[in-house]
Amino acid sequence: MEIAPVQGAESSLTYPINMTGRKAIGIDLGTTFCAVSHIDMYGKPQIIPNSESERITPSVILFDGASVIVGTLAKNNSVAEAERIVDFVKREMGKPKEQFHREFNGKIYSAEELSALILRKLKADAEKYLKEPVTDAVITVPAYFNDAERTATITAGQLAGLNVLQIINEPTAAAVAYGLDKLNEDQTVFVFDLGGGTFDVTIMRIQGQGIEMLATNGDHRLGGKDWDDVIVNHVAEEFDRAHGENPLLDLQSYQDLQSRALAAKIQLSSRPRTAIVHNHNGKSVKIELTREEFELKTRHLVEKCKTICEMVLQEAKMNWSDIDKVLLVGGMTRMPMVREMISQLSSVPVVDDVNPDEAVAVGAAIQAILSLLREEEVSGVKTLSENTRQQFSSREGGLIQVTNITSHTLGVVLWDEGHLEEYVFPMIRKMTPMPATAKNSFGTASANMPRVVVRIVEGESTLPAECTPLGLCDVELPAFLPKGSPVELTYEYNGNQVLEVSVNACGNQAKVTIERNTGLAPDEVERATAGLGAIVVA
Q1: Does the chain have fewer CB atoms within 10 Å around its N or its C terminus?
Q2: pLDDT by residue (tens digit) across 109-132?
Q3: Do 34 and 177 belong to one domain?
């Protein structure tokens, strides 16, 4: 395909289809912990406790014969049953089975299937608590999740038997939870979301009847686990120095050390020092670790967070003086070193009136109700109580509007005839309000081309090698076409930030959906649905 577009890109907005007459929940599907929320009969968001009466559920899976155990029991058995444990699966979302899988009892599980088992536990616990079926859910993801990771999350929800109404960014959900009753206080909020496995920074504007995302950046492989790993490696090195053995080579020893590292990290958030005792192969070591030493060893991680904070301000073309509040989300924001870093960056007040572990799930439940209210507007049929309607309306009387932006640029690989090289043309740029549609017409690179292969990529670079490939659209062309014959390309980026691509090749009117090279293929989804149905989840 040739080097330049014939016409400019254009955008349009639509609202996602939602549910009426169904019970919907909001799910914070976290790397280390999950939370579930719903809107009660009085229009108030409430956290749904699990069957163990806990407000958050560990994202840990234990394969126990023909059944699966999810949550605290699985986490407590992670040392004794290390070879049958799966954790931190969120970091593997979007990868095909060839890149990531776990095998148990002769069956190979993808990241989507493993996440679906966690979601099935959350769904069952919610139904038990609410005493009614749950069919619909809004599930949260890190703002910096890419297309493949978002698609995989939707697939996981479907495999769990849920109708996924929408995927919403975690910082956006937290801002919704915080800003619902503050629409009369116009403000710009800096959402700092540091969880167990991912990190996002998002700037939100609460104004009038809307909550709007202005800019976002992050690292979906930076989180509490990285702080834990620093302690794990420190203790392992001391053990090796004392006994000449690496305890991390043994899976049970590694799981035990992970648990001790997590406990030590939590203790150092409230105490100046802690002791870590680790036993392996009949030998032991006791390590004294002070908060000061821990902060020194993890300074590089804090610096990563600081850099991303500065980047998102630059992208938004804003300064700290433009920020009214800092909203802390995620359990890692309880660490003194994180709060100290934020206080050094700015004197902006920090919001402490939201629970960092629960705000994201609460925001997801609110988003589900907003979707239902929009359907009421369209149908004219009132299905919610007046209390709920008033709770979720702005001061002007209209519905609260939540606007997200794209977190990555979506492009297509073109051929530069002048420089004889490929480059990436941006179809939908980062920070574009969404949902969005972009259309462009391109010319065929040579005469008599039998087919055109459209390569879809994601990333900010103009170099294809530096972008993430998302998939291909392979379209046949009519015979005897001259060079430069028009090929129209359409990108549709929906409210879940999931991309669909279609191609109109020289009047063929052929609409081709992107053939993804990430996550589960459609035929694999069907097989996975049938296979997971036979598994008992507790």
Answers
A1: C
A2: 999 999 999 999 999 999 999 999
A3: yes
Looking only at Cα atoms, what is the longest distance across the chain? 77
Residues 384 and 422 reside in one and the same domain = no
Whether residue 503 sits in one domain with residue 420: yes
Cross-strand bridge partners of residue 119: none
End position of a domain, from candidates 278, 297, 316: 297
398 and 426 belong to one structural domain: no
With a CB cutoff of 8 Å and minimum separation 6, the contacts of 153 are 29, 93, 115, 139, 141, 145, 164, 167
240 and 129 assigned to the same domain: no
Tell me if 58 is assigned to some domain. yes
170-179 vs 359-379: helix axis angle to the nearest 10? 80
Reduced to 3 states, what is the DSSP secondary structure of residue 325? strand
CB of 313 within 8 A of CB of 319?
A: yes
Q: Is residue 10, in this structure, part of any structural domain at all?
A: no
Q: 171: which 2 tokens?
A: 């910082």
Closest CA to 363 of 168, 517, 515: 168
Identify the DSSP state of 393.
Answer: B
Which of 66, 90, 86 is closest to 75 using CA atoms?
86
In a domain, 422, yes or no: yes
CA 308 to chain centre: 17
Domain of residue 458 covers: 410-507
Separation CA 226–CA 261 (nearest Å):
11
Report pLDDT digits (tens) over 406-425.
888 999 999 888 778 999 99
Domain count of the chain?
3
CATH number, position 443: 2.60.34.10
Are 400 and 209 in contact by the 8 Å Cβ rule? The answer is: yes
Q: Which two tokens stand for residue 178?
A: 């915080």
Within a 13 Å sphere around the CA of 322, how many CA atoms are in the beta-carbon half? 11
Q: In the numeric block, which tokens belong to residue 501? A: 């691509």
Q: Are residues 361 and 432 in the same domain?
A: no
Q: What is the CATH number of the domain that holds 97?
A: 3.30.420.40
State whether residue 297 is helix, strand or coil. Answer: helix
- Element (DSSP H or E) covering residue 486: strand 486-493
Query: What is the tens place of the pLDDT at every residue in 348-385?
Result: 999 877 899 999 999 999 998 887 777 777 777 777 77
Q: Are residues 138 and 171 in the same domain?
A: yes
Taking the C-alpha atoms of residue 518 and residue 237, their distance in angstroms, rounded to an integer, is 37
